[in-house]
TrEMBL record:
This is Uncharacterized protein. InterPro entries: Gfo/Idh/MocA-like_OxRdtase_N, Gfo/Idh/MocA_Oxidoreductases, GFO_IDH_MocA-like_dom, NAD(P)-bd_dom_sf. Pfam families: GFO_IDH_MocA (PF01408), GFO_IDH_MocA_C3 (PF22725). The lineage of its organism: Bacteria, Pseudomonadati, Bacteroidota, Flavobacteriia, Flavobacteriales. One of its GO terms (molecular function) is nucleotide binding. Transmembrane segments: none annotated.
Length: 321
């Protein structure tokens, strides 16, 4: 089993601690959090070993799970990597694209692996949809959340939209050609609502909307491709596939048939792929353990995390244009 320590014991850090404790792939050694009062209280209540500082934690583990505020990602990850430790780092990978590139270089130099916590890649609805999504040409994503003060230290693009950016980049096998975007600050000092239109070199277009001041929660994406439409509900964990195929000569009475202006008839078929229930956070942590053990590329590599960050930063930069 890999010895793991958690850096950061906030809301998400507590979840990681609990899941790592029950994982069959890790031995949870302990955690460190500079908020002494919170850390000591958690240690006493849950029984996790509390390290006095980050260096002590690093010395006792194989893997460091970094669940700190984004501003602290680079310096803490750099220290872990330079000590020869594998890192799981929450999204976004770092605060700047330059920091991400430096971290990637350091990981290669010290021959350690890193994975970025883009948890929606492990959402069972998204997993079920992947085999059905082939060369999408138009994508629409809506990620709306009720207001929560936690996370407002960064723009909504880095807080919410980056989930959809990463998911889309994993499916569209083409480089980004252009980005148009707008953002509005309503409650926070940084934009709370944002919309981005990403055009890829293969002419695929993705239209993304994110809000953290919505009256209801929504996490839906729709993928349009030739003869098919795929809908993914990340929140409700549902996937629907609508396909169009050439209509048979003698369709049954209940068949849904469409006919275009040229007289071509298509029959519509509805599919609901099986959704395998899972704990997405536990899955992302355990697949990272397997990548380390088997010396394979993590499902969400540092390079992919860096690319998602680059696109997110381009969207934020486009707000002023």
């Amino acid at each position: 089993m890999l010895k793991v320590g958690v850096l950061g014991a906030g809301h998400l850090g507590k979840i990681h601690l609990r899941l790592l404790k029950q994982s069959e792939h890790y031995q949870l050694v302990g955690f460190y959090d500079p908020d002494t009062d919170n850390a000591q209280k958690l240690s006493q209540e849950a029984g996790y070993h509390l390290f006095d500082n980050l260096d002590e934690l690093i010395n006792h583990v194989d893997v460091v799970d970094i669940v700190t505020p984004t501003m602290a990602h680079f310096e803490t990850a750099k220290k872990c990597v330079e000590a020869g430790k594998h890192i799981f780092i929450e999204k976004p990978i770092t605060n700047t694209a330059e920091e991400a590139e430096t971290l990637i270089s350091l990981a290669k130099k010290h021959q350690v692996k890193g994975q970025v916590g883009h948890v929606e890649r492990f959402n069972p609805a998204f997993r079920a949809a992947i085999p059905t999504i082939k060369d999408p040409m138009f994508i629409e994503a809506h990620r709306l959340a009720e207001f929560n003060p936690r996370g407002t230290d960064v723009p909504v693009v880095l807080d919410l939209m980056i989930h959809d950016i990463d998911a889309i980049l994993s499916l569209v096998k083409s480089k980004v050609k252009s980005i148009n975007a707008s953002g509005v600050s309503v409650i926070s000092d940084t934009p709370d609502i944002a919309n981005a239109r990403i055009q890829f070199e293969n002419n695929c277009v993705a239209n993304l909307t994110a809000s953290r001041i919505s009256l209801k929660n929504m996490r839906k994406s729709r993928f349009f491709q030739k003869d098919a439409y795929v809908s993914v509900d990340f929140l409700e964990k549902k996937t629907e596939v609508v396909r169009m195929k050439d209509a048979p000569e003698n369709p049954d009475d209940f068949a849904m048939i469409l006919q275009n202006a040229e007289g071509v008839k298509k029959q519509i078929y509805f599919e609901n792929p099986d959704i395998e229930s899972n704990n997405a956070i536990l899955d992302e942590l355990e697949t990272f353990a397997l990548a380390i053990k088997n010396d394979t590329t993590p499902i969400v590599s540092l390079e992919q995390g860096a690319e998602a960050l680059r696109v997110a930063k381009q969207i934020i930069a486009a707000f002023d244009n």
